[in-house]
Amino acid sequence: MKFKLNLVTLALLASAGAVAPSIAMADGYGIQNANTDKVKFEKWDCKRCTVETGYSGSIGVGVGYNDSDDIHSANAFAAEDEFAGKVDADLKYSGKSGYQASIEADNLGMENGSADINVGKAGQYNLNLNYRQIATYKTDSAMSPYQGVGSDDLTLPGDWVHGGSTQDMTNLNASLNPLELSLKRKRAGLGIEYQGESLWSTHINYMREDKTGLKQASGSFYNQSMMIAEPVDYTTDTLDAGVRLGGDNWFTALNYNGSIFKNEYSELSYDNAFSPTFGAQTTGYMSLDPDNEAHTVSLMGQYVAGKTIMNGRVHYGQMTQDQDFNTSGYGYQMPAESLDGKVETTGATFKVVSRINRQLRLNASYDYNDRDNQTNVEEWTQISIDSTTGQAAYNTPYDITTNKAKLGADYRLARGHRLEGGFDYRKDERSYQDRETTEESTVWAKYRISAFDKWDMWVKGSYGERDGSEYQASEWTSGESNDLLRKYNLADRKRTQIEARVTHSPIETLTIDFGARYALDDYSETEIGLTESKDISYDASVSYLLTEDMTLTAFYNRQNIDSEQAGSSNLSTPNWFGVVEDQVDVIGAGYSYSNLMEKKLRLGVDYTYSDSNSNTQVTQGITGDYGDYYAKVHNVNVYALYRATDKMDVRLDYKMEKYKDNDAGNDIAPDGIWNVLSFGSNSHDYNAHLIMLSMSYRL
Q1: Sequence-distant contacts of 596-604: CB under 8 A, at least 24 apart
Q2: Torsion of CA 447, 451, 453, 457, to 10 degrees
Q3: How far, in Å, are 76, 133, 140, 680 from residue 684 at the CA level?
Q4: Dihedral (C-alpha) 540, 545, 550, 551: value to the nearest 10 degrees?
């Protein structure tokens, strides 16, 4: 028998060798009996199936000039020096044997730079090297008289004049020197992935992070304090490893994750800038973050049975801290040489999703987490630094056990109409807290409509209540608290929330999106503490393709958070009330024009503006306004991208940031408060500019 071949026939031929020889073919009509004598197989090669080999991608460099008199602008520009440089790359190599490699770099050389290198063979192994730098800047104009900033020993000048108040420190202003409060993190990692036989694979990843800089701290002597610069020199080593076994409809994985944290400095000493009173010392000491370790082992898996998917995870972890105590300046007998801290964590998560039929899908999940603090409880002699005194204090071994369960359903009412709903339950059991047990239940529903042409809409609502065991002040944590005080995370609460979103595309080139959210937390049983919190937000965005070459985008977002609380100044019933009003507005727009100058030039501009305001009012007989806090930020990026040749692009960026805030906490003169030696005024009000010229070359 003879018949013509087609692509399907050839595909069957290609796989015929994999068919078990025991499969019987009826009367010689098997595919292996097809007449292929006149077939020219070389003409049937799939042109589009060819895997490209060799090098591809692009590489670029950039150099920029930064004009700023406030280092805070480096949070936006990722450049703290006058001149900045960067390297960008997106390079790939593919070999005929399956060997492949890639190099990705983004702003490498700047304060937010990163790099990622992968080398391996598809489906067999991969070696990864990665690097990332992250920096955050607070100020470079903090003023301090202390010498030795950056070390663990802060001293005052030899001619320092001590005083009972900051106004009595006669050479304070002459001794002030600026310092920079900033933190930098550098991460470097190495990872290996190996795919064994079809059933198993394994991986191991190692990362080291170094965090350095200065952060704000304070040292106290009774009722007098000084702002001081705490040195940060942390090293964290992290290891993640695991093995995975898998089949056609199942897999299981065993993983380990561990971290080791080390601090170069164990304590910080500082001179007392005030005249010692009430037996205060001339030198103070502060213990810094101690060395510690954390290790976790987990087992997870998934099984697919028809239309049902089941997965779960169990884990066990242990956190330890056993660094010797720093006893400098402490004249009492220590009950132990170290905390010998130990916390064990255990947990389990299970989830099942099942499609009952074409219309209905059900899901359920359960989460269990337990934190068991096994640290020994010791009795410690207190040192008095304020009016709250005591003969002895105890370290509190906080424990918490959390159980969470969820049930949900997804039902297709009709084409373009979908209804979702569910019930969420949570129970927390705590030790040494004002409330031992809290329980929270929430019901929710979501309705989505996509039946109307060019419209997509949904609305979601939920209602939840939290209550629990009898509330009583804990002698461990609330010895001087009002019995009527309720902590917001433990108090009875009723939460109502509704949110909706509408997306409309009236024409193919225009998309309009709008969303809104309303949430109300009612603490109706609280007499003293947070009594109500309201959160209202909405956002809108537009994307419009004006022509084939011109695109316009814009968005707006507003969020209002209003909180009400009640307090008592005499440890009795409420006699003052406070209202905090927070508002955040964010506006943005972008415009781009492509294919100018014979389709070689693209111009664009992006603009964002954010304005955050906070106002606090307190009423106690009369109403007092604490004044507004605000932060206003304008960001502009104007750019031009020019295709100089078929392989080379040149880009010019101009970035501007206008920033202003008035945080009263950052606007205190060094001698502005009689018993506080501050860092001075550190509010921000600046215009910063960055010009960046970059070139990229395509291979």
Answers
A1: 596/549, 597/642, 599/643, 600/642, 600/643, 600/644, 601/640, 601/641, 601/642, 601/643, 602/640, 602/641, 602/642, 603/639, 603/640, 603/641, 604/638, 604/639, 604/640, 604/641
A2: 0
A3: 14, 25, 11, 12
A4: 30
The answer, as to whether pTM is greater than 0.85, is yes
Within a 10 A sphere around the Cβ of 441, how many other Cβ atoms? 14
CA nearest 529: which of 487, 483, 473?
Answer: 487
DSSP letter at 23? S
For the chain, helix, strand, coil in percent to 5 are 5, 65, 30
Instruction: With CA atoms as reference, report the closest residue to 534 among 522, 523, 520.
Output: 520
**What pLDDT, in 10s, does the model give residues 49-65?**
566 789 999 999 999 99
Using an 8 Å Cβ cutoff, are 213 and 664 in contact? no
Residue among 573, 589, 497, 509 nearest 547 (CA): 509
Q: How confident is the model at residue 5 (pLDDT cuts 50, 70, 90)?
A: very low
pLDDT value of position 366: 98
Give the span between the Cα atoms of 616 and 82, in whole angstroms. 39
Using the Cα atoms of residue 45, residue 50, residue 54 and residue 57 in order, give the sign of their dihedral: positive
